[in-house]
Amino acid sequence: MAHWTSLFDGKSLGDWKPSEFGTNGKIEVKDGQLVIGSGEGCSGVTWKGEFPKTDYEISLEAKRVDGSDFFCGLTFPVGKDPCSFIVGGWGGGVVGLSSINGDDAANNSTSQNKKFDDNRWYTIRVRVNKVRIACWIDKEQMVNEPLEGQRISIRLEVEASKPLGIATWDTTGAIRNIRWRPLTGDELQ
């Protein structure tokens, strides 16, 4: 297994920049966490550094501090196309990919409901290779979506998150321990 590389030092935004949604709440680094304040719609940060387009895994810890919608909308590259893993959307419980063949996380085969507790850290993990997207929350695999024949995209609301970003919707979220690694061996299939 390849070595993990940190994308957040807990002290500054570094290569993370406030996303240009026009509706952002306050973005701050506090107590080793990246806090995405509730805005009027999407708030978030976008990575401005280098990042692979495929054959990688990204992991972070996220929690809902306040609000009732998604506290982690992780947008990530899938080859030339972006996709988002939504955690806690549509009123607080929807999990899934936005979008598959034009259908968002509430309306495609990856959609599931899960209860999330406020102020509890959840480990979010996304793995992308040339044949599938796999996502986990803690140790539970939530998505195992093949790419063949699928059209991958994002909702217009998170366009400013491309190619790699983390957003919330009318919700304050906190993020820590953001890291990534290249895939090796069997992970590439």
Write down the secondary-structure element order. Answer: EEEEEEEEEEEEEEE
The total beta strand count reads 15
Distance between the termini: 14 Å
Unreliable spans? none
What radius of gyration results from the CA coordinates?
15 Å
Main sheet attributes: strand count, strand direction, barrel closure: 8 strands, antiparallel
What's the mean pLDDT score?
Answer: 97
CATH architecture: Sandwich
Tally of individual domains: 1
**Residue fraction in strands:** over 45%
Q: What is the fourth-level CATH superfamily?
A: Exo-inulinase, domain 1
Oligomer: single chain
CATH class: Mainly Beta
The SS-based structural class is mainly beta
Helix content: under 10%
Count of helix runs: 0
Shape: globular
**What would the CATH topology be?**
Jelly Rolls
